[in-house]
Design brief:
heterodimer; A: alpha+beta; 3-stranded antiparallel beta sheet; disordered N terminus; B: 142 residues; alpha+beta; 4-stranded antiparallel beta sheet; two-stranded antiparallel ribbon; 5 helices; 6 strands
Chain lengths: 106, 142
């Protein structure tokens, strides 16, 4: 990671804050637009938080995700089963209903 | 160091966590973000938050909140493993301690001390995708 040219930490006063926040919003938007969105370029996936655990394989992950959501369903909680591969990790579990990933065109 | 009898704060929190408050703005450039620390009188207003649009608030602000301890994936052996990895794996990006409002209760400062603070300005809670050093540090071991 490259080092910043300035080595002095920045402090923000109340007077400077609105301008800085505006610049931060622009920079954050630039980061989002520059993100690699894969084959569906232009689509941003929001709300990706997955509640779950690690699995040893995709097959085991699918099985566990289905079992977990079925169990939750018995309590009246409608969850969306999901399996994710992140690097070497396979994570399985569920998305809470309000957090089902949403693809949005920028 | 912090008074360990008081609850410690997570310096890389989410806005919906208990006692969440903003203590920094993600300044710097899009390529090299750096936290600008709020002076005590600088308060983020509702109008500023509304101006975020679809952005996640953590892409623009740094939040502190009450540490969730064992409910957090970063918590291991009674400590925050993220603060320790930051101190071990990231470079210092400042020569002096930032004037930070949360230091008295900060878990990273309580457990790691000055080395965490000298690296803190490069930390973003919502880590950008890709193979950055920050992205590698953010992944809990285990």
């Amino acid at each position: 990671m490259a080092l910043s040219s300035t080595r002095k930490p920045s402090l923000v006063s109340a007077r400077e804050l609105p301008k800085l926040v505006s610049a931060a919003v622009k920079a954050a938007s630039a980061r989002v637009q520059g993100a690699d969105t894969g084959p569906s370029s232009g689509a941003l996936v929001l709300k990706w938080e997955l509640v779950g655990r690690r699995a040893r394989s995709l097959a085991q992950g699918e099985e566990l995700a289905a079992a977990i959501t079925a169990e939750l369903g018995k309590s009246g909680f409608k969850a969306q089963p999901a399996v994710l591969g992140v690097g070497k990790e396979i994570i399985c579990g569920f998305f809470e209903p309000p957090n089902v990933p949403l693809a949005r065109d920028l | 160091m912090a008074d360990r009898a008081a609850p410690l704060s997570c310096p890389s929190a989410q806005p919906d966590m208990v006692d969440a408050r903003i203590f920094g703005v993600v300044a710097g450039s899009a390529e090299e973000p750096r936290i600008a620390y709020l002076k005590a009188e600088a308060a983020v207003t509702d109008e500023m938050l509304e101006g975020l649009g679809d952005l996640n608030p953590t892409q623009v602000f740094r939040y502190a909140a009450r540490c969730e301890e064992s409910r957090c994936a970063q918590y291991s052996n009674g400590c925050c493993s993220l603060g320790q990895r930051i101190a071990e794996m990231l470079p210092e990006v400042t020569d002096s301690l930032p004037s930070c409002q949360i230091r008295p209760s900060c878990r990273w400062y309580a457990e790691v001390g000055r080395p965490a603070c000298l690296r803190c300005p490069q930390v973003m809670t919502l880590v950008p995708s890709g193979g950055s050093a920050l992205a590698r540090v953010a992944v809990p071991e285990g």
